[in-house]
Structure formats: C-alpha cells, structure tokens
Amino acid sequence: MTMAGRLAAAACVLALGGCSAIPTFGLFTDASKKPMPLAEIRASVTPKVVWTASVGRAGGFRFSPKADGNRVFTAAADGTITILDAANGRQVARLDAGRKLSSGAAGSDELVIVGTIKGEVIALDLAGKQKWVANVGGEVLAPVVISGTTGVVRTGDGRIYALALADGKRKWVYQRPTPALLLRAETSVIVTSTNVVAGYPGGKLIALDLDDGKLTWEVTVSLPRGSTELERVADVAGLPVIDAGRICAAAFQGKVACFDIQGGNTLWTRDYSSATGLALDDKSAYLADDQDNVHALDRDTGASRWRQDKLLRRRLTAPVVVDGKVVVGDSLGYLHVLSRDDGALVGRLQVDGVAVNAMVRADGGLLVQTAGGTVSFIRF
I want to staple 89 with a disulfide (CB 3.0 to 4.6 A). Which of 53, 238, 260, 286 is the partner? Predict the structure, then answer.
C-alpha cells in the first residue's frame, strides 16, 4: 500500500467516525502485510521476570503503571485500581473507582487519582473512599502528574489543567487553537520544579509556569507539510525528554529535534517521523519511526549511529534505556533488547500474547503493562 493509500484509508476511517482525532497506534503500518517474523538471535542478555501480577484488561486504552517508592499504582478499564508491593508484586489494595477508566493511576501518600473518557478526574483515598471528582471536559487518556499539592492533567484535545490535590478545584487551565486533525494519543506532560512541558499539534513544544499556567517558552520541533489536513498532521508525539540542559522531542510526519533549554536554541534537527516518542542517554537519542525501524542518533549532532530494521510492522512502543540496554515492546507481547552500541538484537522476552502498552523504568529495572492486564517487573 502506498503512502497515498494509507492516507486515504485513514481519511475513510475519520469520515465514518465523524471525529477529528487520529489514533496513533499503527496508523501508517501497512495492514496488508503481517508483522515481520522474529529471526533467531544470538542472545547475550536474558531478561528476568522478578514478579508478575494481573490487574485487569485495558479495554482498548493504553494503561501505564506508576511506581512511587515501595508501591506500584495500576488501573484497568473496568474501574479497578490495584496497588502492588514494588518488591514482590503482591497486592496491597484493590479499589473500585465506580466508573470505567481510560487512564493509568497516579498515586501519592494519601491519594490515588484516575481519569475517564467522559473527562472526570477522580481522587480516592488509599482505602478506596472517593475524596473528589473534577470535570475537565475532555477525554483523560494519560495519568495525572502529581507535583507537591498540584495534579496536572492533560485532556485528549490538548488542554492542560492544574488541580488542587486537596479538593480538586481548578488552579488554572491552558488551551490553544488546534488544527482540524490531531493525533488521539495518551500523551501526558513533564512537570519540573517550575514548569509543565508538553508537545502540541503543529510541531510545537511549550513550557508553562507551574504556579499560574502562563506560557514561559515555545519552540518549533517541526513545521506541518503537505497539501491536505491529514498530510499536515505534525503533532509532537510521546513525551519530550529533558536531560543535562537540553530537551528533545519527536514529531509525527516531521522531525526529531533537540534544544538548549536556557536559550531555546536549536541544537540539531533530523527528518524522522515517530508517533511514540524517544529516549535519551549519554550517547544517543533513540526512537522507533512510523515503519518500526529503531534508530540511534548522536546525542550532540543528531547524526545516525545505527538503524535496526528487523522489527518492521510490529507496532513498537517508544524505546526505554535501562541498565545500558535499549528496550522496545511490540503489539504481540514481546520485549526486544537492543545493544546501544550497534543496535543488534541481544535479548528477547514474551510477556504475554497481547500488546505491550507501557514500559516504565523503576528501581534498576522495567515495569511493563500489557493490554491484557499483565504487569511485570523485569531486570536485565
């Protein structure tokens, strides 16, 4: 199928659904071709499953676990919230939100916070008693980010709300005009000590003051290109990455770019399209493009260091760097371990037979949650 054919197919789906949000998962993967079969590898890394727990199915959403000290907070589509012991995966508590959920759980010493497709942000105490409900008027697809006395939530249409943890009251809201089409993604925000950082449609990367929501800076990762609205979708995908005075981000149908945070100067840009985001270490920026090639780009210059093309059409997650290895998950429940030096496949593990929804670094290992509701802690 040609690019024009894939665009036309996506346009038909949009016309039938009457919506303006494009689901990112596998949008430009050629549905007429099966995922590339897995070849034999010379494994030098053996991923070890430390523990596994069942927390409930995702129901078409992409739930992510949240580690907080000695606990792991998880959620499922049916409204179940499960708190696990981070050391052994044993169930500490099982709560019921009383509503179907669409986002992972965020947790603190006193609260668990989840979101719904109807725009409800729900806070429960650790015994399961509802403390408050806030309505943010849009799909909540990503976990709330807790910072001090504030919870920051992003809706599917790009609005960002700061809510008081004490009672759920709105502190501020940020919104900006959006194009006719945008990616429907579970993209959250990064919260630093002073700013809320988020990627936006049109290839924009912004920072808001955490206290009042005012725009503090804005840079352009990629400019929209093309003659149709669909071709001009250039949303910043996944979470940006902040490290050592720089911030890097990837745009769908656009570019990967790194900037100097202090001056906002562009350090480098390269033409790659990703709908999942990237990872960064002291050597490279890593990403999976929209055809499921995995790339390593030089951290300082953006020059290509290597490309891994043995995982095509497997609908990969964003890479995660853990214990000196690069790890990606796929839609068939596999984790793939790549050498960060040359991209060689050096390890493999099947978590279960369904899609890997999220991977989160925690305590020297990796927390993985699948669409089937399996949460595992894995060391490499």
Answer: 53
CA neighbor of 196 nearest in space, from 180, 220, 212: 212
Instruction: Kindly tell me if the per-residue pLDDT of 9 is higher than 50.
Output: no
Q: What is the pLDDT of residues 37-73, one digit of tens each?
A: 999 999 999 999 999 999 999 999 999 999 998 999 9
Please indicate, yes or no, whether the overall pTM of this predicted structure exceeds 0.85: yes
Residues of the chain with pLDDT > 90, as a percent, come to: 72
Architecture of domain 3-379: 7 Propeller (2.130)
Cβ(184)–Cβ(224) below 8 Å: no
The three-state (H, E, C) secondary structure of the chain, written as one string:
CCHHHHHHHHHHHHHHHCCCEEECCCCCCCCCCCCCCCCCCCCCCCCEEEEEEECCCCCCCCCCCEEECCEEEEECCCCEEEEEECCCCCEEEEEECCCCCCCCCEECCCEEEEECCCCEEEEEECCCCEEEEEECCCCCCCCCEEECCEEEEECCCCCEEEEECCCCCEEEEECCCCCCCEEECCCCCEECCCEEEEEEHHHEEEEEECCCCCEEEEEECCCCCCCCCCCCCCCEEEEEEEECCEEEEEECCCCEEEEECCCCCEEEEECCCCCCCEEECCCEEEEECCCCCEEEEECCCCCEEEEECCCCCCCCCCCEEECCEEEEECCCCEEEEEECCCCCEEEEEECCCCCEEEEEEECCEEEEEECCCEEEEEEC
Alpha-carbon gap, residue 111 to 262, rounded angstroms: 34
Query: CA–CA separation, 21 vs 3, rounded Å?
Result: 19
pLDDT of residue 226: 57
